[in-house]
Design a protein that fits this description.
There is one protein chain. This protein is mostly helical and 445 residues long. The chain is built from 14 helices and 16 strands. The protein has a three-stranded antiparallel β-sheet with strand order 3-6-7. Strand 4 and strand 5 form a beta hairpin.
């Protein structure tokens, strides 16, 4: 009972801390009818994304044999597997039951790499790594993007080590389960002989840093994908987006260790969070207030990192205002958004006439290399609202209007929410994070 009370208190503290600023934000960016529309669409898309035990969702793939519900990245023919990051980014929507959370958390923990190994393609899966996605039929972990085949994974196009983001999303999963159940016992339960809390620490330590550094770091020679929503882009050096995720995971681990009365561990992770909060703006900010994606290849101003940094409270005071004003102006001059959806790179910051990012496996304005995405719209609206509520409301309204116009529930000729789109085409209909992430922002008021 005492542990439960401590957890409840910590949840309250959390509500005032890391993302609590969102809950305390006074401005309302969607009217009641639009928010209700987004709520119901998010709920319906998430239901379309569920894979029930035994359910088969695509030819060439067996039924769900994992023993519980899985949530894939979207409905229809969208990505027939369990993707850790898409699911973890959708938990805060409030539509995932605790039973479902527990099953996916334990499945992810049970497939964590317990022995460093080399793939048939010559890449490495380090001890502690979390899968990029997990097969639904046999529960085998696929640590690299680009394939569903366990034996052929690790082709070097996708890096020499698995993406760096999923380790931190694994910690998110455990944190939100603790928050939603007011339980701590599961943290010391053993999965394949290792306590869950120890597995969280193993995962946390996988993404590399410079010696004695805290920012996530990679090199051309031994590259890892910084974030799965741009795994087709080569980004090297100190990495902004996974460092933001590491900051959030550090705060979460500190609170989990508070629950376990390990004050030494809690203090250690809080100190790392403080360093990250200090270093991220120093290392990545340009003179306009935008955060660069990295310090090496593709070191371009990154809209997603910048908006997420605002949402997480990493940018403060004058730096915060400069950043938010610039995003507002970018929205106003048309370089940021289209139909309420957001580019990774502003059109004015494209690397060249032939590509948005410096190094991309996708053509310009295609997929992660210049298409428009709904996933970050909430973060961008939140940032713009700090300096111009009306502009933020207008962007949010454009986003909702686009969803209403293309609502997949109208029939097979409609597909919104799409994963992304450009001026001539859209891809992956009924995409979950395109509504779950913005809804998680807009519902907190």
């Amino acid at each position: 009972m005492k542990k439960i009370k401590v957890l409840i208190l910590l949840n309250f503290i959390f509500s005032l801390g890391l993302v609590g600023q969102n809950k305390n934000q006074s401005m309302i960016l969607l009217d009641n009818s639009d928010l209700e529309f987004l709520k119901e669409m998010t709920k319906d898309v998430l239901e379309s994304s569920r894979i029930y035990p035994g359910q088969k969702i695509a030819d060439g793939f067996g039924g769900n044999g994992t023993g519980g519900v899985l949530i894939r990245p979207g409905g229809r023919s969208c990505y027939p597997a369990f993707w850790i990051r898409d699911y973890a980014m959708s938990i805060e929507s409030g539509f995932v039951t605790t039973e479902e959370q527990k099953h996916m958390l334990l499945l992810t923990a049970s497939t964590q790499c317990d022995q460093t190994w080399i793939t048939n393609s010559g890449s490495m899966v380090p001890m502690g790594a979390i899968a990029d996605h997990i097969r639904i039929d046999d529960g085998k972990p696929i640590f690299y993007p680009g394939t569903y085949d366990y034996n052929s994974q690790g082709e070097k196009t996708w890096g020499m080590v698995p993406p760096y983001c999923d380790q931190f999303f694994f910690i998110d999963m455990a944190y939100f389960y603790a928050k939603n159940t007011s339980s701590s016992k599961f943290l010391i339960n053993k999965i394949n002989g290792v306590r869950l809390i120890d597995r969280l620490e193993m995962a946390y330590k996988v993404p590399p840093t410079r010696q004695d550094g805290v920012l996530v770091y990679t090199t051309d020679e031994f590259r890892g994908v910084d974030f799965g929503f741009r795994d087709a882009i080569k980004i090297t050096g100190d990495l902004c987006y996974p460092s933001l995720l590491k900051y959030k995971a550090s705060v979460e681990l500190a609170e989990l260790f508070d629950i376990l009365k390990r004050k030494d561990k809690a203090e250690s992770y809080r100190n790392i969070a403080k360093r990250l909060k200090n270093e991220i703006p120093q290392v990545f900010s340009d003179n306009r207030g935008m955060l660069l994606a990295s310090t090496g290849k593709s070191k371009q101003a990154d809209v997603w990192s910048t908006a997420l940094a605002v949402y997480l409270g990493i940018l403060e005071n004058d730096k915060l205002m400069t950043t938010c004003r610039f995003l507002r102006d970018a929205y106003g001059n048309g370089t940021l958004a289209s139909r309420g959806n957001i580019r990774h790179v502003l059109t004015c910051d494209d690397y060249s006439e032939s590509t948005a990012w410096e190094s991309s496996a996708a053509g310009k304005n295609v997929y992660q290399n210049g298409a428009y995405w709904g996933t970050p719209t909430g973060w961008v609206c939140y940032a713009i609202a700090k300096v111009d509520v009306q502009a933020a409301k207008q962007l949010a309204k454009e986003y909702i209007d686009d969803l209403r116009a293309g609502d997949y529930r109208k029939g097979p000729d409609f597909g919104a929410p799409w994963e992304c789109y450009n001026s001539t085409s859209a891809q992956n209909a009924v995409y979950l994070t395109s509504v779950s992430c913005p809804y998680s922002v807009f519902r907190l008021k």
